[in-house]
Amino acid sequence: MELYVIKIGGNVIDNSENLHHFLKDFSALKGYKILVHGGGKIATDLSHSMGIEPKLVDGRRITDIETLRVVTMVYAGLINKNIVAQLQRYSCNAIGLTGADANLIKATKRPVKDIDYGFVGDLSDTSVDEEKLSTLLKSGIVPVFSAITHDGEGQLLNTNADTIASALAVALSSLYEVSLVYCFEKKGVLLDVDDDLSVLREINTAEFKKLKEDNVIAGGMLPKLHNAFQAIEKGVTEVYIGKSDELQLLGKESFGTRLFA
Amino acid sequence: MELYVIKIGGNVIDNSENLHHFLKDFSALKGYKILVHGGGKIATDLSHSMGIEPKLVDGRRITDIETLRVVTMVYAGLINKNIVAQLQRYSCNAIGLTGADANLIKATKRPVKDIDYGFVGDLSDTSVDEEKLSTLLKSGIVPVFSAITHDGEGQLLNTNADTIASALAVALSSLYEVSLVYCFEKKGVLLDVDDDLSVLREINTAEFKKLKEDNVIAGGMLPKLHNAFQAIEKGVTEVYIGKSDELQLLGKESFGTRLFA
């Protein structure tokens, strides 16, 4: 059985037209699917209006208790439930979740070494309860995850949405043929960053090594691809990197860049 | 099969000690159960810190779009997910929900007559999808509802938590023997409002009529009891009205005031 795990970020969430377009296409997508969303500017805006300034240590963002409250409100409340209501409108039977719900994603608070990142949750290979998630999927439910997890001891934690999407995809690859889809602002991996038409249609592991050696891939793209190929190594069938407004092409024509073993 | 539908309000939520005590007892409660929670002072405090003043028309509270955003953040995000994380800590397999999730509670935006209440959702006899809820319950999940519903057209709505608890109890009474439990600040229905020991242990429909005629029941309590007996008339087995910190007595000794047909 096939399963899509699709991640959207700020560039979709912050633009209500983009978001509606995406959610309509997501609803139309056949088969098992999971949506993971990040935060976007709304959390930053809310923090500002509450007089909370972003905490940075050595340039790294810190999730202090005030920030955790804000992201829990914005990610798990405002954004998540509005996405669910929109999906229901399109007859997609969504349920909005955090990792705490049904204990689906249990994280560990990041240990304090040089920097105390605060209430940030890291994931391991056993973080996701894929059996319980599969039960939900098979009952016709479409899980919509915000980027909040918990430690199992009553503490909510802020966790990177890309990491959550990848962990879900890897864990569920023991039960499904998983396609992991990252939506971002470009049409895919570009050979020439200034040319939107220079999308690489496919890259396999060997080609990725070659492209890295030849320094063809732009700096910002490298960690994304590295993480994608790690997920593939751990069992995910394929990873797509593409633009949210082309989601209707997924599974039909070519969507973004397809990465595979 | 027995099912508890338990509602808590501000007096539990606003006091973290009360809340933890309650959630521990709730976790220990055997059998099928659903928790419904209201808002409390946190939403008011957040509105203040964001510079949003409560909108009142003719003394009635109005849910404008700004207020809806705040209650969605606070009820469905902050409060709901913290409750879920606490319950998971006590091995209670909670999932935090709004009415939009899995389309479990579909409401109608209150029609504008003399007053435009804004984004307030009213419930009808067909609002709750009891079959889908029952599937969740039977898979071992404990639903935790915040007081947010939707209209099925993509719009979230603010709905009274007492009303949600009652609608859930009535709808599920076709499948379960439902005990509806309202937690409030007193130990139960008091014969003498100034005497906490004057709790009426039981009231049936006939006795309620008599008590009303004799003007024995304090004014503020009357609508609560009226709604409770309406739920009983519609199929709910019994309604308890009592204090959250005595929940451990529920189903064992006498908890609060028991209302029945």
TrEMBL record, chains A, B:
Swiss-Prot/TrEMBL GO biological process terms: L-arginine biosynthetic process via ornithine
Residues given in the record as substrate binding sites: 39-40, 61, 158
Coiled-coil ranges (or none): none
One MF annotation (Gene Ontology) recorded for this entry: ATP binding
EC number: 2.7.2.8
Matching CDD domains: AAK_NAGK-like (cd04238)
EC top class, as a word: transferase
Residues annotated as site: Transition state stabilizer: 7, 224
Source organism superkingdom: Bacteria
Main localization category: cytoplasm
Pathway(s) this gene product operates in, as recorded in its UniProt entry: Amino-acid biosynthesis; L-arginine biosynthesis; N(2)-acetyl-L-ornithine from L-glutamate: step 2/4
Keyword Kinase among record annotations: yes
Residue span(s) of domain Aspartate/glutamate/uridylate kinase: 3-242
A GO term from the CC aspect: cytoplasm
Reactions mediated catalytically: N-acetyl-L-glutamate + ATP = N-acetyl-L-glutamyl 5-phosphate + ADP
Keyword Zinc: no
Free-text function comment from the UniProt entry: Catalyzes the ATP-dependent phosphorylation of N-acetyl-L-glutamate.
NCBIfam families, alphabetized: argB
Family stated for the protein in its record: Belongs to the acetylglutamate kinase family. ArgB subfamily.
The protein's name in its UniProt record: Acetylglutamate kinase
Native organism taxonomy: Bacteria, Pseudomonadati, Bacteroidota, Sphingobacteriia, Sphingobacteriales
Name of the encoding gene: argB
